[in-house]
Amino acid sequence: MTLQQAQNLRAVTPPGNGQSWLFQVTRATLLLLAVGLAVWGGVMAARLVFTPTLTTTPGETIQAGDLAFSIDSATWLSMDHGDHDSDPYSNVTLESDTDDEAAIAAASLGFSMPPSMMPGLPKEGQQRLRVEVTFQNTGSGRETIGPEQFRVEAADGTVYKPLQNSSLRTQELVAGQGIGALLFVDVDETAASPRIIWERGGKQVALRIDGSPDHGH
Known about the structure:
Elements: H1 3-11, H2 17-50, E1 53-55, E2 62-64, E3 67-77, H3 99-108, E4 126-137, E5 143-145, E6 150-153, E7 159-160, E8 171-173, E9 178-188, E10 195-200, E11 203-208
Parallel strand pairs: 1-11
Antiparallel strand pairs: 2-3, 3-4, 4-9, 5-8, 6-7, 6-10, 10-11
């Protein structure tokens, strides 16, 4: 190669070195943006998968791991003392050491509970919700259930917890064991769009309650 040819080769430098650098920077930026979007999408998807709020209907069975669960009914109890005489079960007598146990036993037998058997009437401006639930351990291990897993939540985020006179107690269900129980919750008459929520292991099941706690009071 002659000296002239070598000088010609040095003179022919690839154009657009600045454009190539800009392309590399743009590609790296787009790559980082894509990775960021993928991570964000993965986080959002994980929240939907691992902490969903399932909407159920009365009597519908929800399978949560090895635990089958259903909210069988949710009704507002009439706490008017004038209803006592018309209650067909108002004369039912149950042997019990306390009024609380008698009320729980009556509810467990399916009897409507007149105010005379209902321990602790709701506060002024509240109504009592009666919730019937069913659990079934479909696995081979033990499953823990309890009233602390339940709450009633209004549209404004106000939370109402089950009363102590509920028949559901914190307990473990052995393999194949099933149980039905009652929960009682006092809810403000002004509560809008209340829902029953069962939360366990980061998962939630919600049931919209028919009617309003302010039923003619």
